Amino acid sequence: MAPRLGFSVLMGKESKNGGGTPVVVKMENPNYSVVEIDGPDAAFRPVDKSRGRNAKQVRWVLLLKAHRAVGCVAWLAGLFWALLGTIKKRLFFREGVTVATEKLGKGKLVLRVIRVFLVTSLVILGFEVAAYLKGWHYFEASAAAEYLHRIPMAAPNLLHMVYVAWLNFRADYIAPAIMGLSNFCVALFLVQSVDRLVLCLGCLWIKFKRIKPEIRGGDPFKSPDIEALDYKCPMVLVQIPMCNEREVYDQSISAVCQLDWPKDRILIQVLDDSDDVDIQWLIKGEVDKWRQKGVNIIYRHRLLRTGYKAGNLNSAMGCEYVKDYEFVAIFDADFQPNPDYLKLTVPHFKDNPELGLVQARWSFVNKDENLLTRLQNINLCFHFEVEQQVNGIFMNFFGFNGTAGVWRIKALEESGGWLERTTVEDMDIAVRAHLNGWKFIFLNDVKVLCELPESYEAYRKQQHRWHSGPMQLFRLCLPAIVTSKIALWKKANLIFLFFLLRKLILPFYSFTLFCIILPLTMFVPEAELPLWVICYVPIVMSFMNIVPAPKSFPFIVPYLLFENTMSVTKFNAMVSGLFQLGSSYEWVVTKKAGRSSESDLLAAAERESKPSMIQPQLHRGASESEIGQLSLLQEKAESVSKPKKKVNKIYRKELALAFLLLTASVRSLLSAQGVHFYFLLFQGVTFLLVGLDLIGEQMS
Fold first, then answer.
1. Which position among 273, 334, 428, 693 bears the catalytic label?
2. Which positions, given as ranges, span the membrane (predicted)?
3. In the list 307, 308, 421, 572, which could disulfide-bond 587, CB 3.0-4.6 Å?
4. Which of 272, 334, 426, 693 is labelled catalytic?
5. Residue 584: exposed, middle, or buried by beta-carbon count in 10 A (0-12, 13-18, 19+)?
């Protein structure tokens, strides 16, 4: 029981005596300290908490902190153990995985080079660990140079002589070569960073001045003028090229058929290149359904499927009735334009005969589906809001995105039409139209819904096509660019900025500098990269990239690491396109998941709630056998759309680079390089996760 203090009695006496004299209260229990009170308000003053803390309280605080630390360590250990379990299953037992095979020699050559670097780094690491255990702690450049001056004083032995020879060879031969290559890559890195900064400043200027493409003579659909009311809608052809698009064919056809445009002045072409007969019947049924509703829509299927998408579009433009149309709008199979899309884009052509293309921005229905889609959204937001918008405002030129754009048919015909010589037919026609003097407009406020690849395999193939095609096109277009009649500064913009800097230099220095040179400098400290190259400048560039998507700021570190990881695929694709290897001609349709927008889901629910009203109209004029066959195909499509057990893949180049970076991070510990260690560690773990296909949609 606590001792009695008589505190109220003492305070009462003191208050009678005036309340200003200090009072000393002594307690009977010697375990309590003496407290001095200067007055009645002293008890309410802030007290130093450390003064009254006894040994038992300190022990409890330490125990709580230790419990938190143990919990954090246990969580990290559990995560590490789960990662090791996944590595064991996918690498050693190959459970539910397949190895991503390289069809071409160039991919295998890159893998062999990475393996050579990995084996060499492991040998050097083992040798230097042995030297470290013997007390030869000369792992920094300055210490090694000092050590070489004192070699004659050291006691000679075989291992010591080999170590000295390695130090001399490293300083005299390896370090100068790595330093020369690293300086070249750093210079390219800085040039590309300046270009990125200029683009961001241009975007800020557009935002500050509120610059937007204006419709000459005013918008005829919003203006109350009598002349605007007499505006006659031009003839518009809408094309939907597709190939085996089982998941999304109905969404794109439904969205395009609901475009708000006079029905007698629009024609929709569904250009089906599917080689699956079942999918062909499903698409035909969807086209028949909308034709019965009064939509002017036709179905086309090629017998000779050559040239991929370019061949499909070129074949459709050869139809006799195309000459009656003035503009053509193109939508890929997963794109869902809003009903007012044509009213927001086509009027820009009015009284502007030099305008050849109006491009709209993409928006994504599945941008928050997983980490992979979030990182893609960051890249594409920067591409549209910064690159496309700035080039459209100041240059009147940008690369056509292949979809969600409206072309003047005259511009297509004068530029040579769709050519099948590359896998980037959209960029090809844009460059040729620019060389013929046509201007482009980008509308950042007009957005068209589409999908992002949700699996790494689909994203990887898409990026390979997007980065090999431009290099292939550059080889073919360079003579035409040099001999064209456009202004000299436009030629320089095409050659140095559009092709070389943004399509060739970017993947080259990203892969070479951060995936090859940086880990090598850990074993050659004389060529160590400065801190601002691996930390400060990349972080600033990542911040600028992520500004157009401010909600993605929490993902800035994964974005930086993942972009470096994707540099392997982009570098390999760039080389294959530049030297015209087999993979540069490879076209793989990007896998879709069939994600719907909210409006599509509501419409689908409404259709399901009224089956008796829609079903009689679905196949009016069709025979009973066709109806029965289509019903069976629809049932089959529903069964196919159910999730099936698939397998993930493992990617050997990414795994080899993961082990190379992790080996370099262990070597950086010997030199006590903190920032280098953390960067190499996290980058190596990122390569490991990507190599094991642990990012994006999990297939199994």
1. 273
2. 66-84, 113-133, 173-206, 494-523, 676-695
3. 308
4. 426
5. buried
340: annotated active-site residue? no
- Per-residue pLDDT tens for 141-193? 555 555 545 554 444 577 778 878 888 888 889 999 999 999 999 999 999 99
For the chain, what is the total number of helices (H) and then of strands (E)?
27, 11
Active site residue 600: no
Q: Which residue has the higher pLDDT, 661 or 305?
A: 661
Alpha-carbon distance of 248 to 595, in angstroms, equals: 8
Distance CA(73)–CA(463), nearest Å, equals: 38
The CA–CA distances, whole Å, from 361 to 21, 250, 383, 548, 599 equal 80, 22, 10, 13, 19
**Cα 119 versus chain centre, distance:** 31
Q: Which of 244, 311, 238, 321 is nearest to 277 (CA)?
A: 244
- Dig out the tokens for 162 from the structure: 């080999």
CB atoms within 10 A of CB 417: 16
Q: Is 525 exposed, middle or buried (0-12, 13-18, 19+ CB in 10 A)?
A: buried
Half-sphere exposure of 633 (CA within 13 A, CB side): 18
Contacts 24+ apart (CB under 8 A), 351-356: 351/216, 351/217, 352/216, 354/437, 354/438, 354/439, 355/408, 355/438, 355/439, 355/440, 355/441, 356/407, 356/408, 356/411, 356/415, 356/433, 356/438, 356/439, 356/440
Residue whose entry in the numeric block shows the structure tokens 């529903």 = 638
The DSSP code for 696 is B
Give residue 3's pLDDT band: very low, low, confident or very high (50, 70, 90). very low
pLDDT at 84 over 50: yes
Provide the sign of the torsion angle of the four alpha carbons 349, 351, 356, 357, taken in this order. Answer: negative
> 208-238: per-residue pLDDT in tens?
999 999 998 888 888 665 455 456 899 999 9
Give me the sign of the Cα torsion angle 601, 605, 607, 608: positive
Q: What is the mean pLDDT of residues 546-564?
A: 93
pLDDT digits 0-9 by tens, 584-631: 666 677 777 766 654 454 544 454 444 433 333 333 344 444 455 555
Q: Which amino acid is at 491?
A: K
